[in-house]
Amino acid sequence: MKEPKDMREILEILENDATVTADEIAKMLNMTPKAVKSAIKKYEKDGVILKYKTVINKELLHTEDGAEGVRALIEVKVAPERNVGFEHVAERLYHFPEVKSCYLMSGTYDILVIVEGKSLRNVAGFVSEKLSTVDHIRGTATHFILKKYKEDGDILRQPERSKRPAITL
What is the pTM of this model? Predict the structure, then answer.
């Protein structure tokens, strides 16, 4: 069933800022708060809205041990299983607590996993001890994230302006 435009707009508003209240959304969309609350409740019940979360710029956090953690993108080459394709392997992968995201991809590699660990050694251990031992995995390529500029549509840090005075002629 196709959703009315207002209902999709509710999702867009919440996706952009989950702190917006139903009353505020109702005003933005010229709807009643009751209709907005009902739509949100239905989306939650149906699994369209999975959860609400906060985006944290971890680079700005200062931990006691100085460790920010490490994030890596790992491309995984898979020999698909008969009758289940990539599904069984993907399910095995996304159940590892280190795996934060898991996607079926087109291209040279079949599955992309995003992994977080406390250190490079921690992520390398995950790849060698857990990931590479999963049946039907034929190869991996690991890319460590060195710096994040934008994540999930949010710019994490504004460019610093030069403190040098501008030269004028």
Answer: 0.74
